[in-house]
UniProtKB/TrEMBL annotation:
Entry keyword set: Disulfide bond, Glycoprotein, Membrane, Signal, Transmembrane, Transmembrane helix
Lineage: Eukaryota, Viridiplantae, Streptophyta, Embryophyta, Tracheophyta
Superkingdom to which the source organism belongs: Eukaryota
PROSITE patterns associated with the record: BULB_LECTIN
Name by which UniProt lists this protein: Bulb-type lectin domain-containing protein
Signal peptide stretch: 1-19
Amino acid sequence: MALVSGLLLLMLSILFVEARTQPNQFGEIHLGSQLSPISNLNSWQSPSGNFAFGFYSQGNGFAVGIWMMGQPNNTVVWTANRDDEPVSFNVTIHLSEEGKLLLRTEQGNENLIANVSEIAASASMLDSGNFVLYNGSSVIWQSFDYPTDTILVGQNLTYSDKLVSSVSSSNHSSGRFFLAMQADGNLVAYPTNSAGLSVDAYWASNTYQDSEKGLSLYFNHQGFLFMDTVSKKPVLLARSSYPCNNKTTIFRATLDADGIFRLYSHCLENKTSRSVHIEWSALNNQCDVQGFCDFNSYCSGMGTNADCSCYPGFAFNDPSEKFSGCYKNVTESFCTDTKEGQMNDVITVENILFERYPYSVVDEKKENCGLSCLEDCLCDVALYMNERCEKYTAPIRYGIKDINASSIAFFKVKPTPAAPPMSLTIIIESKKSLLLFLAIAFGSVTFLCFVIAISTFCVYRDRAYLYEKLSGIISLAGEFTLRSSIKVDVSTPDEMNLPSWAYQCFAAGQLDKLVKDEDIEFESLERMVKIGLLCVQHDPALRPCIKNVILMLEGSDDIPAPPAIASFRITA
């Protein structure tokens, strides 16, 4: 009899210890309970099984949080110490015998999950999604008081509280936007990298209240988001409208990773299946979010299909995350180097808007606005809008492409460096290949103007015969070398200096030498040669811009007499 009594006492002791280390059927979690990310017990579920607290996968490790159960993916609604690095598999969550909720590493280091001075006697994962610590019947700590990016039914957002978006749907660290309940009763959304001023705000509830404590946002069981007021007359902010046909419905309001505050409903079909619907959205277009595309980039597109692009002269900080902004892809001064004659270029982008705090506003016409930026060492971009020329320096933020904006932005960029001149071994069989030889010998961007001029003339003379005429004329022999061997069918050594020779023929009125016995209209030939000679001037200031070249080719502009060509020789 004594033996039976002893065995019975031992069994009761074992059951008592097990009961203290595991939650009971009502969701109560006792002191001494623990979780491991790699064990079967890696979470504590609510009585209904709709919510769980414990470890979830993030990156290469695990994070501690609360999630809504569902297929194919759970929905994380709260994260503890969200900006800490993911933990490894050899950590455990403890509700310690000392009444502390903490994370314990394999080395014995302990980090508090709930920083509370009172001692907990138990904990519960509630069906509301709230994780609670109790001291007797009193709540001493609850996750609802420390929201991350989401509020749930029964949860309030009061003065000084805020929601901070996650980095992404799979990374629940603090993201790029926050939603704050202000002292004036206004619920306002800002980029996190801003000062939180009115110019940074991109959405507001417009529920101003003359109260030192402000208002509070609360969420009822019907899926209605209300703003409480001092007069106790709630202001409806958003409501559910999707019928779930009497199925169990869970509502949540989340500041998503894209910066938009949305109301969601989760209709539970069964234990493992549920449908998710967006009931309300504070904004419909991602590009309406200030800072959706970070510094030196602009947002384009509609709805949730926004895209980020760098401004001319800038490159992505991280091409895999275009929203992270851009950097200036040159570091040297943008001022003109008069010694080398290097000029900056301007690239125009229409329908661009960005934060408008110019350091200078000048009275310039649209045609001269870009030039004004070129001549200003501080200027990175000039914006012409409403008959004003505004000048800005980088970084430039809050950029957006708006097809309704009548604006033109002039971005100062460094010109693409010209390729170093290459020496070729070329044998030219006749002066009929003069044009091709000049293009290869000079190898410069400016000489392309000469190509345009002469090729236009050739097309004018005989388009159908052009390619047939060129066939077999030129052949390349040897390899690219540092020196060239050139054989040209010319009668005098002076003709080796091709631009100079062309100018001498022009000045002497002997353009027929350039074409030998071919029948060509003299006025057209003279026009093309004059344009070509202007384009190969050594001094960049004497060369016409491509716009003027086109106008001269069209006959819309007069062609000035070309200056004499400087000596240019090719040695063998």
